Amino acid sequence: MYYQSSSSSFNHAATKIQGAFRNYQARLRLKNQAVWKIHEKLEYSNEQTEAKLRDTFEKLLKASDLLSPSITKLLQKPGLPLEEKELLKSTNPDDIHIESNYQGPHVESPIKRSTFVDLIEAFQKGQILHEKYVYLIIHQARSILKTLPNVNHINLSNLHHIYIIGDLHGQLADLLHIFNLNGLPAADNSYIFNGDFVDRGPKSIEIMLLLLTAIILYPSSVFLNRGNHEDIMITAQYGFQEEINNKYPVRL
Fold this sequence. Notes:
The protein is built from nine helices and three strands, in the order αααααβαβαβαα. The chain is mainly α. The longest helix has 61 residues, at 6-66.
């Protein structure tokens, strides 16, 4: 029979205690490292929050400086909305000349389905629509949208089907993929677009122009619901106004 000596038992116990203590120290180091990383992340987060707020206010100030005279007047006028004649005068497409070196698509009135297809092809190539045509589309779509109530009621019995789309956020590829899967908007191919058309993505203008053109062509089959990003304060922060200023630095 084997009997373990007292000194051997003591050494074994001491080894276990040392091992446990080393494990405790290792866990403590990991805990301290984790606490330090959390502290760093919180501090960095606070710095980011402050920087984001500062950036937001700077963008708002910059946006207010870059707004077109017509929009500035609209925002400052106490009796909104701005008179139609005054708005048309400052944004009249007929007063805008097309440069001889313009290579983008042309839009004629009345707008046709072929125009919609031409715009898609042009935007896929990265072409920018001339501001004359941008105003033309906006004015025609606006004349339709102004007649609508704040809440639209849709009679589904009159529709064969309807696709509900949300949060495009300037991603033209997403919109074109949706059209590729489900077909272009048409009298018998209805769509509801649930807001947040703009910001974040690089093609917010192109998306808005396509949606507004669809409204012009099929006002009873295409419906636009405003999202929280369809707001001047939000678009100043998240990129839409900057996109407008970059693509149309003079008038829009």
